[in-house]
Amino acid sequence: MSELLREYGRRALACFFRSVVQIVLAYAVNLPLFIVTVLSIAFIPLGFGVVLAPMMFQAIRTIANQQRVWAAEWSGVRIPVPYRAEPAKAGVFGRLKWVLTDPASWRDLLWSLLNVPAALVLGVLAGGMTLYGLEGVFVAPWVAQLTDYGWGPFWPLGEWGAVGLVGTVVLGAALTAVSVPVGPLLLKAHARFSQSLLAPTRDALAERVERLTETRSEAVDASAAELRRIERDLHDGAQARLVALSMNIGLAEEMMKHDPDTAQKLLAEAREASGTALTELRDLVRGIHPPVLAERGLDGAVRALALTLPLPVDVRIDLAGRSDAPVESAAYFAVAEMLANVVKHSAARRAWVQIEYPGDRLLMIVGDDGTGGADPAAGSGMRGIERRLAAFDGTMAVTSPVGGPTVVTMELPCALSSPRTSPSSGTG
Amino acid sequence: MRVVIAEDLALLRDGLIRLLGAFGFEVVEAVDNGPSLLRALTTHRPDVAVVDVRLPPTFTDEGLRAALDARKEVPGLPVLVLSQHVEQLYARELLSDSRGGIGYLLKDRVSDVKVFVEAVRRVAGGGTALDPDVVAQLLTRHAREEPLQQLTPREREVLGLMAEGRSNAAIAAKLFVTEKAISKHTNSIFGKLGLPQSEDDNRRVLAVLAYLGA
Which residue spans traverse the membrane (chain A) (predicted)? Predict the structure, then answer.
């Protein structure tokens, strides 16, 4: 019995605090933010609104995200995050456009305004019931003794004497008891209200489909172009060499009897040609899927790559398993391209690579202490990597002030399979 | 000399058996997967093993790992690793116990039969045989660094051949100079790099490789 009471008390208390939190949020945060954001939009023509408005919208997003978390934790109402992906490289106006054209921004703003009365109703009903009921049981009867505490809305004090006192305590207890199941329901209703404004609309879904279609067609185009390149390389390179090789060997076979010296020369040539063909094939294979990647996964392949570069590269990799081959390959080539850029353009003295897996995605950071000023739009290599990552919903962000350092952050959503042990060389 | 061969492609396995047999090696066992290789190495204790990196069942670096495990059990067991591609990372792992008796070559090098057989013998004798591709990478990687900058082009050439594991006699033969000239070069190289001199060929090679960070 006392267990049950304690549990009831705990629930009532939690519900009461949550309601208070919602009221405080609405009045101390939502309302001021709404006002300042509207003002910042008004300031856009004056100039500084261009910078201020995106900042304010971001602040609102932070609050809205907190509300999404609470809705899930307190009431089990899931509110997915609807925002469009941040553009990888955006100037001041780019950011403004990104924020203003996202319908989710405006729905956030509307929620900030409407949450003020909504949270008030919730708080007054849920918190107020509990508080008022408790006051009826513990406070009102005694205060009525001391002062001429007249009435509460329900408390039959004043004219009723002892009956009124007892009635007040009973009514107060009843109100408190009712507030225990009703409070969470009210909270849930409030979460649903937030959901109606903060969840993605059908438009967002349509947009996602559009983006997927776009990245898919880019990926298909890229892989088709890649296949054509491989076909051409094989046809004009190794294949042609092997044809010449078998001709040479056939000729040597003929000459074996009557001109062994020439035959030997031809065979030596043939061996050389086969060596060249093999080197070509090796380079081609490396470009398609580096063998060390197949053998050791992303971890080993990146370490192996770092060892071949003409500058010290500090490699830190923390991966508990391997991802699917296509993802692994995209990740490897992304890192390889960035390191190649470091060697080619940055004049850096050292570089670093950090790869980890914080739960649902590969996080890859490649940095260097070079001259900076890297521009993803300028190089076709970076654009290509961006497209390759986008095919997996991956993103790339570059910060490269003039004078350095350059840091490229890439994220690639994926799952990791079970870990595979590999001998750690203890070197980076 | 007793040899164990590990290669999963029958064509290449037979080729290696035939080639080594023709040069007087005794092939005691030829296996086609990692677990059998480890067993063969630890039971036969061959004079030298010729091992492919990629073997079943995993088709990853099974052969390399079996070789490393066998050397843990039989320290200094001579192993020559063959692969379709060479990686500094693997070279480093193979050389990490600094005991010598290690070879790491591209498969294509087999076609230069004399050089290949010489490399097998060198490894069996506790020496080193490192692929020119790996050595070239090591040298380019350190090319910008101070002590290497001080070497003459000829000295750099000698350093490369030394890193491949060749003896003074072999280097002299390759460059068409006397052995005496080569030892002058090596003395000068060791002086410039600040490495201790050593009479022992093999220890000298390992010192050079350690210096190059292999």
Answer: 12-29, 35-57, 116-140, 160-187
